[in-house]
């Protein structure tokens, strides 16, 4: 575990971070492609996706946070913003924070960077009025799920998927 106070600092992303953030997005997408075959090619989606989540965070009382390691530069990021809970929730739980993305460079995983990003994201969302925070992980991403559970997050929704068409759909039986 790194000493976050000495080696890692968390701050808002700035334009000069863009190349590093794109590289991290490519790394995450390549990892997720192995877990979920419907993912877009990493190098094609990274720049537009990063722009989309950055704008999303700015429009929703959130932030695109970066983890910066002393002597290394950007080693991770998290995207957070406020979202609605839906009509089926009690009114006092309509202020839901969303942690939509959390990425840590492969060589920095297991060193406390993810936890530091989550703590910073929780502060941003608490300050924005969130009463609940939601974060999702692919069902095959056991490492991410373990990090979230170690921080007190518990499964809330289960989403099942089935392809009806396209190259991932089951072949019709003769």
Characterization of this structure:
The chain is of the alpha+beta class and 174 residues long. The protein has one domain: Gcn5-related N-acetyltransferase (GNAT) (Aminopeptidase, 3-Layer(aba) Sandwich), CATH 3.40.630.30. The chain is built from 5 helices and 5 strands. Strands 1-2-3-4-5 form a 5-stranded mixed beta sheet. The longest helix is centred in the first third of the chain and has 18 residues. It is globular, with a radius of gyration of 17 Å. The relative contact order is 0.15.
What is this structure's SSE topology?
Elements: H1 4-7, E1 8-12, H2 18-35, H3 42-59, E2 63-69, E3 73-83, E4 96-104, H4 113-127, E5 132-135, H5 142-150
Parallel strand pairs: 4-5
Antiparallel strand pairs: 1-2, 2-3, 3-4
Helix pairs in contact: 2-3
Describe the structure using short key phrases.
disordered N terminus, 174 residues, 37% helix, Aminopeptidase
Mean pLDDT: 90
Anisotropy-based shape:
globular
| Largest β sheet strand count, sense and barrel closure | 5 strands, mixed
Total number of domains: 1
CATH topology: Aminopeptidase
| Strand-residue proportion | 15-25%
| Poorly predicted segments | 1-5
The CATH architecture can be given as 3-Layer(aba) Sandwich
Which percent range fits the helix content?
Answer: 25-40%
Query: What is the CA-CA span between the terminal residues?
Result: 55 Å
Number of helices: 5
The structural class is alpha+beta
Helix-strand topology string: HEHHEEEHEH
Sequence of strands across the biggest β-sheet = 1-2-3-4-5
